[in-house]
Design goal:
This protein is mainly alpha-helical and 306 residues long. The longest helix is centred in the first third of the chain and has 36 residues.
Length: 306
């Protein structure tokens, strides 16, 4: 006899079905075993490198307390945090501008109009090929010769936007192509136009599934802001260089700067991992609806209105 399916079971089934939809294939048992083995080997190798480095530092007197005591004072950390703030400012600008441009490029590359596809594809392939350092040198030395002299932050932001917009475009395009075709077709069957189907149905789901990869790209973007030292922009690495020249503690200063990068990028990486495994939120209205009726269920098994 057919009975109603409990709401929790139905919700769990929907979560499991949606969790399997990903930009990448789920590794099999052999692949997972190899990942665990190589993870253990990598951890031990890193521990060996760290221990060896500490021994070398200790033999050269680099671990002496006098060389680390200055980093317990607030003025030094305040000086470095100003550089971190500059890094965050540049990263936020590149994320907003590069993400917006990447979204337009992804939609353009999927356009039905061939000229639009060719232009967007040409931009993406060109931007992925040109080194970011070359673009920064162009902003620093080339454009001023033509009378275009931008503020320091834009000499860093514009090249990073050009490079990262191409990466964002490919990630978003992969998210769109990874969705079942039935999503768009169902939206069109409801009377939506192509633009409405893309804006209201396809893009929200594609961006949600691509969010972990987008956050991972954001981590890479934050690391690329360290190229700001070339244009003397006040970011974290540039502040570390100035501080090491002032206190003469080169190794200690750059180890502290590395630690700051590790902590901040580690937080972003943890966020990406959480977004990759987090199930979608249940709608409060749907959760309160009670059990889901099944075709063929007797009327007595269906929920009665209160």
């Amino acid at each position: 006899m057919t009975t109603a399916v409990p709401a929790k079971s139905a919700a769990r089934t929907r979560v499991q079905a949606q969790a399997t939809l990903s930009l990448y294939d789920e590794p099999g048992p052999k692949a997972r075993r190899n990942i665990r083995i190589w993870s253990v080997i990598t951890i031990f190798a890193l521990l060996g490198v760290i221990i060896s480095g500490l021994i070398q530092f200790g033999s050269k007197g680099q671990l002496h307390p006098d060389k680390w005591t200055p980093f317990l004072s607030w003025p030094i950390w305040q000086y470095l945090f100003v550089g971190l703030w500059g890094t965050l400012q540049a990263g936020a600008l590149v994320a907003v501008l590069g993400g917006t441009l990447g979204l337009l490029l992804a939609l353009g590359r999927l356009s039905r109009f061939a000229p639009v596809r060719w232009i967007c594809a040409g931009y993406i392939e060109t931007a992925r090929t040109i080194p970011v350092l070359l673009l920064i040198y162009l902003m620093l030395f080339g454009l001023p010769q033509l009378g275009l002299n931008f503020p320091l932050i834009w000499k860093l932001v514009i090249p990073l936007t050009v490079a990262n917009s191409a990466a964002f475009a490919e990630i978003i395009r992969a998210g769109i192509l990874g969705l079942p075709r039935g999503q768009r077709e169902a939206a069109l069957s409801l009377g939506m136009s192509e633009g409405q189907a893309s804006r209201l149905v396809v893009l929200p789901q594609a961006l949600r599934f691509a969010t972990p990869s987008l956050v991972t790209q954001l981590v890479s973007l934050i690391k690329d802001t360290s190229l700001g030292y070339i244009v003397a922009f006040t970011e974290l690495l540039y502040r570390g260089q100035v501080l090491s020249a002032f206190n003469g503690l080169l190794i200690q200063t750059f180890l502290v700067v590395t630690l700051v990068y590790l902590v901040f990028n580690g937080i972003l990486s943890a966020l990406a991992a959480r977004l990759r495994t987090r199930p979608p939120k249940r709608s409060p209205r749907r959760a309160a609806a009670g059990p889901v009726p099944v075709a063929g269920a007797p009327f007595s098994d269906l929920p009665r209105p209160q």
